[in-house]
Design a protein that fits this description.
Elements (H helix, E strand, L loop, with lengths): L1 E12 L2 E7 L10 E2 L1 E4 L6 H13 L6 E6 L3 E4 L6 E12 L10 E7 L13 H6 L3
Parallel strand pairs: 1-7
Antiparallel strand pairs: 1-2, 1-4, 2-3, 2-8, 5-7, 6-7
């Protein structure tokens, strides 16, 4: 089975959680809600990739986020590809009233209460990934 290593980061602000709607321009999971995610390249450190993706996708610099928790790597099956799984490295960050500036990968964002996540059509296993961080 083939696998792809990715990070998924969540940002919390005043007990609200930032979620992003994936744009129609991305390769996979178009229109689904997600955390901030990105593929880990080569032997890159997952936390380093998480901070890079946070800056690229929502415009928050590393000095404006605080790592609250990371969780063990999780394996999630990939419904759109046969014989494929995602190896997800989850992170939870805290930010104080950040200004969100989306790039092309996401079309909108929302700050929600954690229990509201179930009301959104999300990428596979997003709740499971989040609950490992809480």
């Amino acid at each position: 089975m083939r696998s792809t290593k990715i990070i998924t980061s969540f940002i919390r602000n005043n007990n609200k959680l930032l979620i992003l709607k994936r744009s129609d321009k991305v390769k996979t999971m178009k229109g689904l809600w997600a955390g901030i995610s990105g593929i880990i390249e080569n032997d890159e450190e997952p936390l380093k990739r998480a901070k890079i993706e946070i800056f690229e996708e929502v415009g928050i610099t590393e000095d404006k986020v605080i790592l609250v928790k990371s969780a063990d790597r999780m394996r999630v099956s990939s419904p759109q590809y046969e014989n494929h799984e995602w190896e997800i490295y989850p992170f939870l960050f805290e930010a104080n009233n950040p200004r969100i500036k989306l790039n092309w990968e996401n079309s909108q964002f929302e700050w929600i209460d954690i229990e509201e996540l179930e009301n959104y059509q999300t990428v596979p296993s997003l709740q499971k990934v989040l609950f490992n961080l809480l």
